[in-house]
Amino acid sequence: MILSVSRRTDIPCYYFDWFLNRLKDGYVYVRNPINKKHVSLIEFNDRNLDFIVFWSKYPIKMLNKINELKKYDYYIQYTITGYGKEIEPFCNNKDDIIDIFKKLSLKIGKEKMILRYDPIFINKKYDANFHILFFDYLCKNLNGYTNTVVISFLDIYKKIIKSIEKYDIRSLNENEIMYICENISKIAKKNNMRVQTCSEIIDLSNYGIEHGSCIDKKLIEKNIGCDLDIKKDKNQRKECGCVESIDVGCYDTCQNGCIYCYANQNSKLVNKISNLYNVNSPILCDKINENDIIKKREIKSFKNSQLRLF
Parallel, antiparallel, or unpaired for β 293-296 and 51-56? Predict the structure, then answer.
């Protein structure tokens, strides 16, 4: 089993103590985001928990408690953008975010630190040249602290249209994508990083940018030292190359407030649900009700111990 922690909310920033308690107790409840009465019971142990993929914009709570993960294999998808407070109202100062990245890299190793520069969008303030200049600043600061950069371009979901329309945010056209990616590729190479895309159809191989996976089979295999018998995640988009995982997060609980986020409906709902947070609860920002239908999920290890890679 691979745990995703989490595409739905920033657990390493806001709910990391809760997640550590789930690891200690060996189980977690996850409510189905579509059919709310259905709850999965997910039990994990040393035999079936193969890997953890963390997602965060500011995993500061991990820094002083990173030793509590020493028995687990994991890496961190760490997002840094150049957008201001009007776009990411509750994210920390960019230099502080970069500083935490460096400190974590020194503690756990640069191979476990994946830099995400996404989503990329365009408006009057954040034009193509802005992205190139900020990406150059970012890579110069993180040279030696990561090997890999993941980029993606904004998908304009229906639920975010109202949030972004007053800022004249739009998707990039193909010429803009090519211009930005040609420069991003040169900058990354100069700073000893490789670039890959996340869930993108466009072919950027001419610039040395390949299609990538956030929950990456090859990278996980390299970390754990053996092959995985695992399939593509059928619950993700067609363009997504991620392998199967179980997400333990909850929608409408991320307090970063990013206006382009598909995981939050609005700030009032986020405040309401986040107020239910209990560090000792088996379910994130929620409680199990007597009418809930709880089903134990079948869990197995994907490790193939007979096929050693290293």
Answer: unpaired
